[in-house]
Amino acid sequence: MTSATAPLTWRGRIVAVGVGFVLLAAISEFTLRAVMPNWREYHSGWFMTHVAVPGHGVTSMGVPGFDGWFAQNNGDFRARIRINGFGLRNDEPVTQADGRIWIIGDSMSFGWGVERGEMYTQILADRLAFPTYNVATPGSSVCGWQALYARMPKELRPAAVVVGLTLENRIGIFDCPAEAQMTTLPADPAGISLGQIKIFLTRHSALYNFFAVSLKRIGSVQLALTKLGLIKDPGEVLLHGQNPAKASEMIAATANEIGRLRAMAPLDRPFLVVLFPARFEIRDGTEHFRNVRIGITNALRDRKIDTLDLYQAFKAEGLETTHFAHDGHWNARGHRIAGEAVAEWFKAHPLISPPPPAGR
């Protein structure tokens, strides 16, 4: 006597296929974690955090003691990131910042995507034979820069301060005293967005990173993903929330807050705001960013604050030569241009010699 196995219903088939996919995904995930140990390198959250600074609100900072690699999944870069015990991208402890040129700014000044020796912080130090100290953090704006400066130990004094102002996304209507009242760390946005899902998967899934790395490096696939809106078009003109109709208001507010930052620094030491031109002015001559660049120059001049405009230097080299293809930040060539230009400025502005090394 034989027994017949009942055929699977369509619901049973769907369940069986689903279970199979889950098992396959789990096996692939654990396998890739073993054979692709660098899968965690594509998430910047491993080396970035936030800190509340009394009287100045919350700002971004590095994770103290982090030492690892950060890579762009489309292949733009892979760079080693070392964060010291004070949460800044320096090999030396914060006590060594005394008497150095302090570099303050956002991810561009932090050296996003480039090695320590390629950062304009280091290029400037090499060209001047004068030590620098990096006080920049990704995602920070002028209010964050005030917090970063205030966070530095009070007994330390810079020989000079260089502020890197990224015109593409760091001009806005700021009110730093109001932001200073915010003492809680930023909360995750409500709801679920595609961006949040991608960040979660980048942080937690080797399988997702494997496919992201593989697919993003195939031109035709990248084009298809861009058309579907799953990844951003690197050539798209972005205003980063800036409203051209409010350009004058944004310029005035930004200049006022830079004025507050200038008042925090020693008045007898050089203070320079370096204007980082927007990609879209370099490439297309976008009128809005041209107006912002000229407007902030005039507004800071009216406040007796020195500026250095890098537009002509970057325009002469071209966007593709000075920036990563997809990421939007400077590559090593861009940092070299900036570092050399700032060094030339300092040749006309005397510096107070740094203190001798400890023990001498």
Q: What can you tell me about this protein's structure?
A:
The protein has 360 residues and is α/β, with parallel strands linked by helices. Among the domains are: 15-39, no CATH class; 95-185 and 237-346, SGNH hydrolase (Rossmann fold), CATH 3.40.50. It has 14 helices and nine strands. It has helices at 10-35, 107-110, 120-128, 142-151, 176-179, 194-204, 206-216, 219-227, 247-264, 279-284, 287-302, 311-317, 319-322, 332-346, and strands at 48-53, 57-62, 67-71, 78-82, 101-105, 132-134, 160-166, 271-276, 306-309. A five-stranded parallel β-sheet has the order 6-5-7-8-9, sandwiched between helices. The chain has a two-stranded antiparallel ribbon with strand order 1-2. Helix 3 packs across helix 14, helix 4 packs parallel to helix 9 and helix 9 (247-264) crosses helix 11 (287-302). The longest helix has 26 residues, at 10-35. 34% of the residues are buried.
